[in-house]
Amino acid sequence: MTEEILTGNELCLMLNEGAKILEKNAALVDALNVFPVPDGDTGKNMNLTFQSGVDELKKNAAQGTDQVAATFSHGLLLGARGNSGVILSQIFRGLSRGLNGLQVANGRQLAEAFQQGVDMAYKAVMKPVEGTILTVAKEGAKGALMEARRGGSPEKVMETLVREAQRALANTPNQLPVLKEVGVVDSGGQGLVFIFEGFLSAIKQGFVPTQVAATQDSPIISEEPVANMKVVHSHVHETDIQHGYCTEFMVHLKDKYSFDENQFKEKISPFGDSLLVVTGDQFIKVHIHAEKPGEVLSFAQQYGMLDRMKIDNMRLQHNEVLRKQEESQENGVVQPKENYVLVAVASGKGVTDIFRSLGVNRVIEGGQTMNPSTEDIVRAIEKVPANHVIILPNNKNIVMAAQQAAQLVSVPVTIIPSKTIPQGISAMLAFNPAESSEENEEAMKEAISYVKSGSITYSVRDTTINQMPIHKGDYIGMAEGDLVSSAPDSLHTSLQLLEHMVDEDTELITVIYGEDVGEGEVETLIQEIGLKFPDCEIETHNGGQPVYHYLFSVE
Amino acid sequence: MSKIRVVTDSTSDIPISLRGELGIKVVPLKVHFGKETYLDGVTITPSTFYEKLVSTEQLPTTSQPAPLDFTQMYESIREEEGEDVEIISIHIAGVLSGTYQTANIAASMVEDKVKVHVVDSKMASYVFGQLVVAVARAAREGKSIEECLDLARRMKERTQVLFVVDTLTYLQKGGRIGKASAFLGSLLNVKPILTLDENGTVSPFEKLRGKKKAINHIIEASKNYAGQGPVVMSVIHSASEEEAVALGEKIRQEFNVQELVVTELGPVIGTYTGPGLVGIVVYKL
Questions:
Q1: N or C end: fewer C-beta atoms under 10 angstroms in chain B?
Q2: Nearest C-alpha of chain B: how many angstroms from A485?
Q3: Strands A463-465 and A362-365
Q4: Topology, domain A334-448
Q5: Taking CB atoms and an 8 Å cutoff, what residues of chain A touch B59?
Q6: Do A5-231 and A452-554 show the same overall fold?
């Protein structure tokens, strides 16, 4: 038996095939991208990087394995895009060094060259992280070296390299927690596996050695990585997935001699995308994303018995992954010192929404005309498990009930004595889940003093307050609980009130309008405020609150 | 004694006049809108970029220079300046971009031709652009390579940046929101004040409502940091020149400022902040 060798031409074919498989799956790799920066361009970057190597090969007539590798590596260094592209360029720079001076390479030389690629890549990365493309390359090369020591041919070496790389890829979620959280394998590693799979496919097509018979158990396409392959990137909408079912199966070929892989690929490709077909000795293994997996299976059945079918709904997976991603974002990054639960008293849908958007967990319906009882507050506290509860009463008549409630529950409670909705909002902005309860209490109490609160309501009877005669049905404007303006219409009452509240330091006026206020009325008021106080920013929200026509905060 | 030349990347946002005056060489990063690729600051200007950014549906992506972009730069300096030249190559924080890493790879690729000292500024934009300018000046004054590198290391400790963005959307979509993710999701017009931590990660400083309030607040916080001593300062903005110039005027009046540069955030970092950013950098002399 003569030693099997890899020629420059064959290496060239391998690189081309690797590029092809990578290109086909670039979008998938993008979708896996969550580390180091979840910007969803790993596949695109790797693909363009690799393509730059292929272009360089086209431009230059390279001969031996050394020249082919050197030319390709030069192209990669020239076109490296993104982190994964740079790492890829280093792997092939090392590989090219390893093949230096070799017109042809045997299994051992090939394996050693891959190992040099790994060394080069590890050296290039400042802080190598395991569970990434680096690990996949390393494990692949390790396997290749072992195979080579057993005297394996280039094909055998590649086969082991692919298998070990796949295994390492499937293991990446165990090494990198962020991958496990969202339920994906590493994107760069997946890209590299696609490249390696292309290499293997070329080596098998290009110079099929007769004595090698792949057993049908050899996992040519890894089970795990493909199964784990979930479209996760938030730029991808569920509706963007054209072919919703990840479909994988094996076919035991009825007639292995007349089977033509290329023809098969051509016929099956209209069913979907991300097609991967690997041909073994008596079987083929197929991976395709299709909209109608049933039709794919019926079609494939013509070629022989089906086996190991696996169909995943990628749209549902995508939603699930997005949900997990959101959860991990909510819980993530800032580790709370305490498990805080924030409770606020408010009424009106818009006001409630504002508090929720600021991080309030429970809103107790209530306010001026409807004070929640101590029991209501106790129930709200006990509903959610917490280590520490912070309450915003947002009304001076509710502070007491909150204090009583605090004594009836077993968790420690901090009461921020907010007397108005604007004070409550201001306090919420100062809340920081990463700080201790003492620090939060101080910051939130201080924040209350930064904001001036005003409100507009109407009088239910004729009266005189602060020497101001007020008629039933008149609007009245209150600043921090003091009556300062009154008029038959809300516009003038509001403007007078604001005149009282706004001074030269005022930067922002917030208007929260109630359930009885029409759109046109708000618009007029905003225009007038703008004219009267041209130096202030104005923000408007539909609070939907009862009783108070308008709530103003001035700060 | 060896000659020193300074190389940086385009995210340093150093105004062109200053680059020319000090002979600072800039390697561009790249911005990709779909299939179109632009070289940061070379084939796309900030103003065209921000116009495109707000009108495009799919956000652009960015990429660091390729290894050979750096080796070519280093080799051409070696050719122009002769064999006794040494290069200081200062780059955007390694936590924000792979540029620093790639510069290191390139430096090792040319190590038998020219000595390149690669520095991770742990900062971004003109926050480290200022550092590059200071090092280039020191080199021009004949300071040794050790003195220059020492300056580069010390400056970071005496520099603070505070900035306000119009929206956190860009930081979030681009995956660079860092520890500021706690600020997401409010219905109110919250203007988060952000800073860069010791490694260059975007971190929350405070959240306030309304841009005017936020800007006034970063002026106050910058004053606290600056104290009474002399400072070098800069104002960084994205598509907000008027605001930035006005802020510059205010700084001239209210700070003991020795030098003030107003500069626009380039496309690559602009991809992650969007238009409407205003920031103040203080470097205590």
A1: N
A2: 27
A3: unpaired
A4: Rossmann fold (3.40.50)
A5: 235
A6: no
